[in-house]
Design a protein that fits this description.
The protein is an alpha+beta fold. The chain has two domains: 253 residues, no CATH class; 245 residues. The chain has 22 helices and 17 strands. Strands 2-6-7-1-5-4-3 form a seven-stranded antiparallel sheet. A six-stranded mixed sheet has the order 12-11-8-9-10-17. Strands 13-14 form a two-stranded antiparallel sheet. Bound molecules: zinc ion. The site of zinc ion (ZN) has 7 residues, from loops.
Length: 646
Amino acid sequence: MVWRCSGCRSIRPSPVQRDRIETMFSAAYQIRSAVQRDARDRARAYWAACHERARDATAARERLGLSKTGLEYAAYGHLDAAPHLRRATTKAVAMHLADSVWAATERHLFRDATGKRHGMPRPGSWFDFTRIPGRAKSHTTERKWETFRLHGSLAGHRAAYTTSDGRFRQPDHLRPVTTATRGWWRYTGPLAVVFTGLPIGTLVLPVRLPAAPSNQPILDHYLADATRWHKIDLVRHRDPTAAGGWRYEAHLLVLAPPYESPTTHARRVVAAATTATRRAGIDVNVSNITVASHAGGRDLQITRVVHDQSARQAIATRATRQKRHGRRLDRSRRASNPEHYELSARQQRHNERRAANGRAPAQMIPRGPRKRRGNGAPQSAYRHDALSNAYRRERAAAARDAEAASQARRELARQIAARFVRDHGCSFVVEDCNLTSWSRRWGARMAAFTPGLLVTALEREAVAVARLAAIAGGIDRAATRTTALSQHCLCGQRVPKSLGERTHACGACGLRGNRDAVSATLAACVVFATPGEPASATLDGERARALLDAPHTRSRLLATLPYAFHGRQDVRSESTVPSARDGWSIADMGPTPDLVVVARRIVGTASYPTLDERGGSHRHTTPERVRTRTNLFRTPVTWTELRNSS
Ligand SMILES: [Zn+2]
């Protein structure tokens, strides 16, 4: 049994219901803020009591009420002290809000597996408060489901909204769902989210389901069996087009395995029958991914993920739109807070001219930098700025665009993962590298390419196919230290190369190929002494040697070479200014024998390669932010260097 969210069920409340939901969110926000303040004060007292903590930390937390129950009682206290909030919310909701605050507090008090602690809990912003958690239904006690409950049935819903010509269609304004005479537990009409226990009466919200024919099997899978419904959260999103600026959804958690469409199932069955026994290796890079696989040391196949023109175009369009949002937000912020910004040099000159003519300074939106203190920090923190409604609408629109973009990227990653598994089987080996540190160095490029997303999608697909084939599949991570795939050849010889060298040429066996392709081929020959333990990975020299001697291996690796002739992929960002903007994306694969142009176009030349992957270089790439601001294309020559050379 898998815990699975079936996605969003949109709620279209009437004005009266909308008002009640807004009051409910307002009350819940007040309770949550009060509990967050309590948690912050208690955490401060806890850290200050160093002697008491040293003696017995658990007793100190207990005394201060720093526990789940402690915060729950704090929430009850606030609710009792503010009876007006009882009109819109209940004790059960207060308890769940306190539990969510405790989850954050716990992360602050205790270290996680990596030894890190989160920051001090503090009251969140009203605009970031988007979820009222519900309580899970009891699956042992009949009719026990507090806070938000889903009533009705999918069949009843379809019956109510099927037109005379047999189409499932929900009108713009859903009919209000009336309380059944026999009570909610026996109600089987159109679906509705019900919230009981309020003094001003039960809140009943009609539910809108996705009506497209393609969505109907998904609805059947998740909603047909009411005994699997588990929990409902009430969620809101900023939506500039919705009345009141918020869109409301009920998020239903269903106890069911993930939905698998017939097409997906058929594809997985074919993959399980044909390619499941292949072993594949992945070479992940900042801006491309290469996969190589073999079947028992023969038939080497290589695929490389690159971007195509349309994906590049889409990214460029997205970047333009993002820039436009950014400009509008900046203009709006400056207009609302002119006292925190300097006038630009031009504006100052303008005012000086007016002063010389005996006129008062002009009123204008300042275009200069933010006013700063001596240490460079802003004179007034950004969070204290006044923000207009237009600003909030713009920000919501920007967030909506970003959400759509990330959804598109996820979908693309899913499609590519499906093709990888179809062609290369379901047992992958990837180098165990820290993508977080990569994104710190190559942030913009990583964000456009998102290799982590693709690896995650690949793992999910591989596991699903392996389950069908009844074998152990998925992605194994191999430690770089024990394998050093980029520094070896299939013949076992060490072929050292820096990150700037994109070709592999072995002096011992004469193998030539793209460095990533050779690395991925070696990854396909990695074995594990202990499954699931990256440090136990070693290169199986015998298998690599057999693969090298197999027919077609050399020619297929040689065919990957033209990738490298089109330029290095990891050059300093200064030398690639125009293409750093258009970005990279996962888009299409270049199959091995087909020599399509796959590498990026390099504009200008790099004076030296980017920092070594072993981290020994003193030269760092210029962060995107600095480059944009200074328009710094090359490292300027300093005066001291000029003096020394003379
Ligand atoms: Zn060799």
